[in-house]
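User: Thanks for the earlier help. One more: ATP synthase subunit b. Can you show the sequence and predicted structure together?

Assistant: Of course, both are below.
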Amino acid sequence: MEFNATLLGQALTFAVLVWFTMKFVWPPLTNMMDARAKRIADGLSAAERGKQDLEAAEKRVADELRKARQQATEILHAAEKRAHQIVDEAADAARAESARIVADAKTEIDQEVMRTKETLRLQVAELAVAGAQQILSREIDPAKHADLLASIKAEF
């Protein structure tokens, strides 16, 4: 009977141990395992969301880089266009300035030609008077000579 009493004692002890474990040990262990499983699941879902956010951010970065490159290209084209406009405006201004300088020079030359012609008329008139005085030294009528010289000046 010892074998049966021992077996019965061990079975009773095992039953108490199972009951004690099921009542006091198992619920905190299952709660801890459930909490850990929940944290792991939350971590995995956060990692997946992070991965999706990273992919979305990479797409936004690629779009922004594309837009920035396009904008930089547009700015370069606008700058080149403006540079050509400035060069054209400067060339037009230079042409206008050179035309003005040429016109001023022509006007000055024309004035100088007129002054030279007037000086030559006076010299020719003086030479004519001197020649006429020598030729007509015999005739001495100053009033007639003055009228004659005035008409000669008016002709030239």
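User: Great, one quick takeaway?

Assistant: The chain has one domain: 2-155.
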